[in-house]
Q: What sequence folds into this?
């Protein structure tokens, strides 16, 4: 069987990879390739990445009326890139099945240009944030099975004639135990740091380190503060290490390509840079400081309290549009604090001292995100197409 996965986001690309692994487990002889509409994803990646791709300034964040991001992408060649991608997709009609992972735009281009049986893994919208429009539902009805990101969304889509169901949250499928051998707990809280996967990830990590110093100073002495920076595949580890050095942290490379790839010792904060083991980072963390999209949601789904700051232009409004969307999605599982380092640190320490609130945040996060299992369900639905032919 020949399957093409199409994604339009960094988190969506990781979900596509999870689905690909599920397909390969059930059908080792299947050919599976991934065409990302957002991001480059160069290097030795599985499943193989195909099709035209180019980094855009927005990192794919051009929905919800974000006109400024859209204009920046247009100036950087978005139209030319899109035309090239459409042409590539129109040459994929030999595929047995297509899986669109992302929003309805991703599904629409698959239906329009590939014209093969298409599943839809709808990661972009939830009833907790905004319902799908009439146009989006009309497009979704033209596809095959739709796998919604939560039960409430699946029910709402089904009522509007979309063949939707909830079979688990595909975002949670990536968090299997990987045994990366993270440093043992020190007695103090362990802090997970999710700087994101876009261009500001290195800067976000540096800000988090500055805030960690303030957090460590406010906590009672119970050993060094252990922190794990989860580095996305799109983040250059060398750039990240240089940024930490500029903040007075001098991590040493371990030589590993997966797991703890660099660490620092000494002082009130011990920092490990971790690659490819997000599930381990979340399991080891007491709390998560996150500027990520999908990563924040996965942390909440794993039952970890998530704290985000309003950075950059977000501070000009009462709540930045992206964090507003994420907080509506995650509810009380996400605490959004001011970007001021002192205020942020005080808010984190107050949360760490409130065990009841932390437990409540964990319960809400698990409820809002749901359990794992969608990747296997999508793989089963894709492979079932072969038996029908």
A:
């Amino acid at each position: 069987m020949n399957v093409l996965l199409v994604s339009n986001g960094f988190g969506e690309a990781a979900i596509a990879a999870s689905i690909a692994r599920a397909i390969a487990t059930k059908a080792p002889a299947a050919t599976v390739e991934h065409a990302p509409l957002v991001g480059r994803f160069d290097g030795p990646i599985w499943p193989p990445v195909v099709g035209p791709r180019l980094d855009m300034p927005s990192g794919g964040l051009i929905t919800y009326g974000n006109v400024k991001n859209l204009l920046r992408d247009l100036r950087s060649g978005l139209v030319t890139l899109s035309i090239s991608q459409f042409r590539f997709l129109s040459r994929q009609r030999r595929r047995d099945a297509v899986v669109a992972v992302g929003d309805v735009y991703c599904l629409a281009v698959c239906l329009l240009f590939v014209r093969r049986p298409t599943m839809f893994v709808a990661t972009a919208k939830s009833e907790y944030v905004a319902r799908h429009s009439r146009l989006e539902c009309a497009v979704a009805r033209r596809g095959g099975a739709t796998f919604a990101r939560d039960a409430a969304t699946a029910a709402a889509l089904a009522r509007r004639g979309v063949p939707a169901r909830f079979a688990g949250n595909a975002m949670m499928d990536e968090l299997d135990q990987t045994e990366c051998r993270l440093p043992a707990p020190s007695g103090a809280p362990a802090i997970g740091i999710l700087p994101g996967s876009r261009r500001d990830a290195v800067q976000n990590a540096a800000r988090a380190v500055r805030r960690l110093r303030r957090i460590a100073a406010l906590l009672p002495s119970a050993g060094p503060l252990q922190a794990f920076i989860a580095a996305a595949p799109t983040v250059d580890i060398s750039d990240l290490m240089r940024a930490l050095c500029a903040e007075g942290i001098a991590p040493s490379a371990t030589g590993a390509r997966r797991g703890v790839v660099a660490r620092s010792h000494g002082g009130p904060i011990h920092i490990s840079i971790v690659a490819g083991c997000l599930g381990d980072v979340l399991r080891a963390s007491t709390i998560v400081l996150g500027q990520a999209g999908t990563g924040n949601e996965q942390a909440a789904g794993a039952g970890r309290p998530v704290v985000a700051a309003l950075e950059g232009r977000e501070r000009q409004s009462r709540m930045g549009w992206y964090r507003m969307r994420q907080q509506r999605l995650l509810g009380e599982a996400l605490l959004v604090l001011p970007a001021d380092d002192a205020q942020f640190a005080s808010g984190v320490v107050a949360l760490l001292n409130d065990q009841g609130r932390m437990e409540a945040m964990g319960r809400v996060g698990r409820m809002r995100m749901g359990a794992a299992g969608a990747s296997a369900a999508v793989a089963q639905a894709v492979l079932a197409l072969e038996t029908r032919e």
Observations:
- The longest strand covers residues 225-231.
- The chain has 14 helices and 14 strands.
- The radius of gyration is 21 Å.
- The domain at 2-168+373-388 is CATH 3.40.50.11930 (Rossmann fold).
